[in-house]
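Worked example (supplementary).
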Amino acid sequence: MRAAVITFPGSNRDGDVAKALRQAGAHVDHVWHGDHELPAGTDLVVLPGGFSYGDYLRCGAIAGRAHIMDATRAHAARGGLVLGICNGFQIACEAGLLPGVLARNADLKFVCKRQHLKVERNDTAFTSAYAKGQVIDVCIAHGEGNYICDPETLARLEGEGLVAFRYCDAEGNVTTAANPNGSLNGIAGIYSPGRNVLGLMPHPENLIDGLVGGTDGRGMFESLVGGKKAA
Amino acid sequence: MKARVTVTLKTGVLDPQGKAIEGALKSLGIDGVGSVRQGKVFDIELDGADKIAAEAALKAACEKLLANTVIENYRVEIGA
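After joint prediction of all chains, the assembly is encoded as:
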């Protein structure tokens, strides 16, 4: 597994996601947003969390138009894997890799806390190390994570099984009380139609070491690397 | 040539910032405030004097960057 972690001006979780990928056995290249090409042999492009361009204009809007995003779109169109975490999910939506928008949290508060997530399916490159319906404990930290889209898109996401994760309580119940930001149907992450692009607001890379309070995030990186060992 | 692009949220899209501002205005005792929707204004200085070309360029700018047309509308006004 060869991963390219993109750094935009204002990315700040690129180092953490690279560590998570290396821990799982991936080879990681760090790639600058102004580059036009991905390293040869890239299997996975990671759009990391942070505050690209200071969230100016709209979160992810300017980064979504960076040179490297043309190469990332081409990679995704070839069936290549793309993972967008938090600001990376916002960037993926702004770049047209995923539908919809991450709007301001419904209660206007920046939320930074532990959160349970339900794994909707485990037959994807990102979730094979989890069980279907498993409840995982992750971290969220965002002010604009309120996933919205038009009713037709929502029906398509639900109908085609493209919802990756939903916010839930510790027992796996998807409720309004367990929804931290107002997202439609408790959506925390979605796939592209080919399930090769995943965007999610939570940070699986935060919880990869028992030393910092949990390891439920490891499954995502182990899933990715398990499908393709480091060359 | 000066131009102004106004970007506003589409009707029906939740605007929590507008709601918070609306609440603040009401709490300040400003009379007659029904509702508030927050948007963005871009004042843009353009080279050249061709208004039709300028309008086309600004529409492209809105579609490509200034507005997210999933949730936002935009309006282009070209001045002197």
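Two points are worth noting when inspecting this output. The helical segments of chain B are 16-27, 51-66. The first strand of chain B starts at residue 2 and ends at 9.
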